[in-house]
Specification:
Length: about 475
């Protein structure tokens, strides 16, 4: 692996570049929020597909996506082009991502269950495939763009901030503009046309803007050496990656977090509308409160990394986040907080939502920054720089099981006998009580496993800086960034 501009001094990475790089994650934020919060209820309540059928489609596509991820990451590690390793993939993604997202929410009218299922599968396949073309190479740019232990946390914070804010703002727009209760709410099929158009536009603009903002650094990014490699070389590189203990730990963490988030996101609207009894205006208000929390979290994460380190910060943050998520549900089950959408319920969940915004942003930034620090640890052990393979492996394992989270959500709804026409007939009290009672132990079990794995992560500031020193000693002509 060599530098295209070996021996030259690279321009500094200043705030405009950091922010525009992070802006690209708006595409992922819109996609994630739309799929996790609206896809199940849209295809179930608006179009009439059974929840288990929708969950099955999502699970199938997630497994397909998981297979494509490592191949895409590996290809972007090895690509030689005048636009470097990553940017050709990023530019190629913009139009297909926007188009497939739009058609996902606009199936032809009158389709039967089988045809509707096929439409869902095709659109999801294209969306997840080309989203991978942007997301993985863009993620892989991060460790090359910024190598500093704390600066890397700032870069990751920018990315996750834009991803989260975009998802939150898109949800607010969905509740208040595209799918208002006065027009039928989140089950109104017609409202999803503008919902889809707006999401597609945001995705296209954010992808192109982010790629252009980092384009000028291409000459200073790593360029793969010309080498003859067999088709089995991919599997050898994967095995070398998995031999690294920090890599294994963070990949397992990503898997478990994906399951928890998939189940929680799939049930989010069901909890809001039926468990707590909120109307869509209240849900939109709480989404705004969550956005304010993420702003605070974006500021807290880099400072927390500086003061206590990434590992201690993420352990404390994730433990508190789990408690904040579950305590209000337990209080509702105990009868201490009503589920009538009244002031007590609203303010209880508003406080919870703000705290979750802070803690989600903080822990997500620190986890992703910890994963980025694995890049140099792997290079020290294997002699190869494989950012794309590492991030794609994380995406592979996470996506392979995130569908399990959605499947769990669908299974929970079926287990508690959630009614198909809930919007019209209401939901019996015992059904909503069972919903909360099943959710709590599921989240506790997975969260305990996440904390145990994070506690074993060995890379701290000292080890990261030692890794950088070893790599610099091997490659004295490596490109340097001016301060």
């Amino acid at each position: 692996m060599t530098s295209v501009a070996a021996g030259r001094v690279r321009p500094p990475v200043r705030w405009p570049t950091i922010l525009l790089y992070g802006f690209g994650a708006c595409s992922s934020g819109v996609k994630m929020r739309a799929l996790s919060s609206f896809l199940l209820i849209f295809y179930n309540q608006s179009l009439g597909l059974p929840p288990t059928t929708v969950a099955l489609a999502i699970t199938f596509i997630t497994v397909f996506d998981a297979v494509v991820d490592p191949l895409t990451g590996y290809a972007s590690d090895r690509l030689r082009s005048r636009w470097g390793r990553r940017h050709p993939f990023m530019y190629a993604a913009a139009v297909p991502v926007a188009a497939s997202f739009y058609f996902l929410w606009n199936p032809l009218p009158g389709l039967g269950e089988g045809a509707l299922f096929a439409h869902l599968l095709i659109c999801l396949t294209l969306l997840r495939l080309f989203d991978t073309f942007f997301e993985l190479p863009s993620l892989a740019l991060g460790p090359e763009l910024v190598q500093d232990y704390d600066g890397r946390t700032v870069l990751v914070s920018s990315r996750i901030f834009f991803r989260t804010i975009a998802g939150v703002l898109f949800a607010i727009a969905a509740y208040q503009i595209f799918l208002p209760e006065s027009a039928g709410g989140v089950t109104n099929r017609d409202g999803y046309r503008m919902f889809a158009f707006a999401g597609s536009a945001v995705m296209f603009v954010s992808i192109v803007t982010s790629a252009l903002a980092t384009h000028r650094f291409i000459p200073w990014f790593e360029k793969p050496a010309r080498e003859q490699r067999s088709g089995l070389a991919f599997f050898g590189d994967v095995l070398r990656l998995l031999r690294n203990q920090p890599a294994r730990l963070m990949l397992l963490v990503g898997m478990l977090v994906a399951v928890v988030n998939g189940a929680r996101s799939g049930l989010e609207i069901y909890f809001g509308l039926y468990f707590w009894g909120f109307d869509q205006a209240q849900l939109a208000a709480m989404t705004s409160i969550g956005a304010a929390g993420t702003l605070v979290g974006a500021v807290v994460a880099p400072r927390l990394s500086l003061s206590v380190g990434k590992k201690r910060g993420v352990l404390g943050g994730y433990a508190i986040a789990t408690a904040v998520n579950l305590v209000p549900i337990a209080a509702r089950l105990a009868g201490w907080v009503p589920g009538d959408g009244g002031p007590l319920a609203f303010w209880t969940i508003s406080v919870q939502t703000f705290a979750q915004g802070v803690l989600y942003m903080t822990t997500a930034v620190l986890m992703n920054s910890m994963l980025a620090d694995v890049v140099e640890d792997v290079e020290v052990e294997s002699g190869r720089r494989s950012e794309g393979l590492l991030f794609s492996a994380d995406a592979f394992f996470s996506k392979a099981v995130s569908g399990l989270g959605v499947l769990i959500a669908g299974a929970v709804l079926a287990f508690v006998s959630f009614p198909q026409s809930a919007r019209l007939q209401g939901v019996p009290g015992e059904v909503t009580w069972n919903l909360g009672a099943v959710f709590i132990p599921l989240v506790l079990a997975f969260s305990a496993a996440v904390l145990a794995l994070l506690a074993a992560f060995p890379i701290d500031r000292r080890r990261h800086e030692a890794n950088l020193a070893r790599i610099a000693a091997r490659r004295p002509d490596a490109p340097q960034e001016t301060p």
